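Changelog-adjacent note: as of this version, every example in the card shows the full chain rather than a window. The one below runs 396 residues end to end.
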Amino acid sequence: MGKKIRVWDGTAWQDVAPSLPYTAIHSAQASMPATGVDGQVWLDTDGTLAGQDFVPLSGGTMTGNLNTPSINSGPIVGRNKIINGDFSIWQRGTSFTGIAYDQPVADRFFTTANNIGSLTTSRQSFALGSAPTSGYESQYFLRYSLAQTGSGGISNQVFTKIEDARTFAGQQVTFSFWAKSSTAYGATVFIDRWYGSGGSAVDYNAASSSGFNVTTTWQRFTTTLTIPSISGKTVGANSFLRVGITLPAYTTVDVDTWGWQLEAGNQATPFHTATSNQQTELAACQRYYVRYTGVDYTVLATNGYTQSTTQGAYWTSLPVTMRVPPTSVEFSNVEFRDSGGGSGYVVNAISVAPTLSTQNIARGGMTISSGTWTTFRPGFLEGSGTPCYLGFSAEL
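Full-length structure tokens:
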């Protein structure tokens, strides 16, 4: 039988002469029925004229794998489990110095390095038209600038955390990222599984892959990994997957990275953020960290009162529902404004009380550095310098 496609036109099967530049055209099934249904197209999928597979143009169910890199030339939103994978959101600032374990940098991203030498992690801007992939004109990328000397065991890393150790358990996943380095090196990809407080011991390198040759030009690296089953484990509070790449050690180097994506399956699809746009991506980041930033007299917390001559309390609504009630607070250049008397008092300590807070309201205490409050005066927290900020964390 010659190669052809047969389509039911509502009355009879019609042979369709191939006109597209295929090297092999599937033929009609030898066992196809005498009559069909509008929209049915019968194909021989393996060239043997065996079986009765067909693909309906409307409705029906397809079995097997369908690789769809895009729909209408656009990315598929929601596959990526990494929030802020394009490094567009930096609530805490744009440059971080010092070496510390689990150092927050861009939202949802962290660094760690051995305490030898110096480290600066910063937000860098792409020149217009220079983003590493066509079709996604990103604005920022992350730069890890290291100056280290010494020898021995060390693990320099940049990583993100994906909530819930159950994520992708027992599944095949594909991790992809772009990177370049001022000095070529071999990177390793790792996924650790942290079972949280009261849970099983950490599975370090639950899945990993090595041999990624990062050079001085942007490249996309992809690897397919299998996340082990979670059977027999105990999941406690605040569990997560820790997904990251290793960085050079004992050298002076700049490593740039962008476009992190972790998705189900064995194919890397075109990069897209975890959510549909910048506003929803910010909200996804604020589930874990919220920072109010301003200048002199910017209102940072809307409600408060004095409890004694030196101590006070505050509470304020949060812009999103956070993962848990805030567990820590950061601040700079903040004062308490007495809304009755108009006086401002610089605050030298602010705390947050998780047991008095909710996922939607932060509540805590404060003390002033000088002066004397009148007890039980209403007020609010505002900026006393530029820049000023008040940040609440519910990080994993």
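Structural remarks: Residues 278-286 form the longest helix (9 residues).
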